[in-house]
Amino acid sequence: MKYTENRFTHALRDGVKQIGLWVTLCSNFAAEVVASAGYDWTLVDMEHSHNEYASVLGQLQAFSAYKTVPIVRVEWNDAVAVKRLLDLGAPGILFPMIQTVEEARAAVSATRYPPRGIRGVSGATRATKFGRISDYAARVEDETAVLLQLETLAALEQAEAIADVDGVTGIFFGPADIAADIGMMGQPTAREVWDKVRPVAQRLIQKGVPVGTLVSDVALAAQLLDDGFTFVACGTDTGLLARGSDALLAELKGRVKTA
């Protein structure tokens, strides 16, 4: 059995726009609802949700029957956590709060086997289809998406050097934390935030580095994709549920005659 190509990783390298959705409900059933929608990628979040390894596994299994590629955001730049997620078969990892070149190198190293990194070796894992994928070790580095999240002004200043680290697949901007860092907590779509992000993103785009982000404003998401961003998530599962339930209730109340 041979390694199956990671559609998301190759799309980023080829500059093919990828539309995504944040997945935080920690449910394989909810993940399957999303999986059949047709997004190019999703982000299964462990940093800001109550996901554990077992719930992530269930969601990876739910997505496995569909074309949507599930990337996992690990809680922190922790080599042990990354090793476990890769063994579960995560096709890509998003590393939060990368601030320096050294942290970027540590993130990449966690995804590489020795001598190029520090990932521990285990043969009979879900990632290798329990030892059946004969070329797994030879291909996993090239296929796994390694995405680094920049979330502060200090990180933005280091963006080009961080992106130059060998093994980095793409750079992801975290506008909510950047907003907080510049004293605009709760305003991730503010012009002041994107005035900081856009020039950095454009420099990376000009260097051929895939860049991405999460925004809940569909118009902004489309604009970013048109401006050269390669992978953009346009909402969250919890946000869709909250807005949908609010809208349904408001619509019904608006149609009911008052006494």
Folded structure, characterized:
- Helix 4 (79-87) runs parallel beside helix 5 (101-110).
- This protein has one domain (7-255): Phosphoenolpyruvate-binding domains (TIM Barrel).
- With 259 residues, it is of the alpha/beta class.
- The protein is globular.
- Strands 1-2-3-4-5-6-7-8 form an 8-stranded parallel barrel, surrounded by 9 helices.
- The longest helix is centred in the last third of the chain and has 19 residues, at 237-255.
- The protein is built from 12 helices and 8 strands.
- Strand 2 (41-45), helix 3 (53-63) and strand 3 form a beta-alpha-beta unit.
- It is 44% helix and 15% strand.
Characteristics:
8-stranded parallel barrel, globular, 259 residues
Please give a quick description of this structure.
The protein has one domain: TIM Barrel.
Q: What overall geometry do the principal axes of the alpha carbons give?
A: globular
Going by CATH, what is the homologous superfamily? Phosphoenolpyruvate-binding domains
| DSSP, total strands | 8
The helix/strand class is alpha/beta
Quote the beta fraction: 15-25%
- Overall mean pLDDT score? 97
CATH topology: TIM Barrel
Regarding CATH, which class? Alpha Beta
Poorly predicted segments: none
Rg over CA atoms, rounded to whole Å, is 19 Å
The description of the largest β-sheet is: 8 strands, parallel, barrel
Q: Determine the number of helices (DSSP H or I, runs of at least 4 residues).
A: 12
If strands are numbered along the chain, what order do they take across the biggest sheet?
1-2-3-4-5-6-7-8
The string of secondary-structure elements, in order, is HEHEHEHEHHEHHEHHEHEH
Number of domain units: 1
Terminal Cα separation, in Å? Answer: 69 Å
Fraction of helical residues = 40-55%
CATH architecture: Alpha-Beta Barrel
